[in-house]
Write a structure and sequence with these properties.
Length: about 240
């Protein structure tokens, strides 16, 4: 398929429309919880296994399902952020303190003290100044880890959605170019009703290359296509005016 003879601004708009359609198709697959919660695995990775497991104390053994639902509802902010912070604080118990100290980087300077804090909190005793200071440090480490985990999870989610949209856009672009071949000569395309032979005869490496270029470019262009097209149109008029 030859490149279409269109003004560059129209080509940008068309690519942007393709990217928007691809994003719409990808969004439609969010009925799958695993797809909708892309990036959620970064939370466990950043918090550490012991801190993550401690959430079961606050929310029960099925806490991951609960957190995934909150993550889908509002990534990187809102209920999931609050649930993680509060759940980790509740999960600080005498039998979990050592592992949590290790995950938070306190293993060399405060693991025993963190166990003492957990014992005191479990018994309702008042903390002395040193233990209160260490508890503040632990809570600050928790807040920082939660913020970082949700930021990385959101970034991974966006990357996966963009990658999925690129794949869909490439497929749509290739199918579109293939259908254009049919419209140029529909009689020969469907005469023998052998779709595989028709597809093979009409296939060109240039079609696939064109589809890949258009598909990859369409995704980042989707949200800014109108602005880019307007800027290109204005630049073209300015260039013509100076000739």
């Amino acid at each position: 398929m030859e490149a279409p003879d269109l003004p560059i601004a129209d080509m940008v708009l068309a690519a942007g429309a393709l990217g928007t359609a691809a994003f719409g198709i990808v969004e439609g697959f969010k009925f799958s919880p695993r797809w909708a919660s892309a990036g959620f695995s970064m939370i466990k990775k950043m918090l550490g296994p012991h801190v993550y497991a401690s959430l079961a104390i606050a929310y029960g053994d099925d806490f991951e399902t609960f957190l995934r639902a909150q993550y889908i509802e509002g990534r990187s902010k809102g209920d999931v952020h609050r649930a993680l912070r509060q759940g980790i604080r509740i999960g600080l118990k005498p039998d979990t303190a050592l592992g949590m100290a290790d995950d938070m980087g306190l293993s060399l300077v405060g693991s025993a003290e963190l166990v003492a804090i957990a014992d005191a909190l479990d018994c309702g005793d008042e903390l002395d100044e040193n233990l209160a200071s260490l508890l503040s440090r632990f809570e600050l480490a928790v807040d920082t880890r939660v913020d970082a985990a949700l930021a990385l999870a959101d970034n991974k989610y966006r990357g996966q959605m963009q990658l999925g949209a690129m794949v869909v856009a490439i497929v749509l672009a290739f199918v579109g170019s293939f259908l254009l071949e049919f419209t140029e000569n529909p009689a020969s395309a469907f005469a023998d009703r052998n779709w595989f032979s028709v597809a093979w005869d009409n296939f060109r490496a240039s079609d696939l290359g064109f589809a890949i270029i258009v598909g990859v470019a369409s995704v980042p262009l989707a949200p800014i296509a109108k602005n880019v097209a307007s800027a290109l149109g204005a630049a073209t008029k300015l260039a013509k005016g100076r000739r």
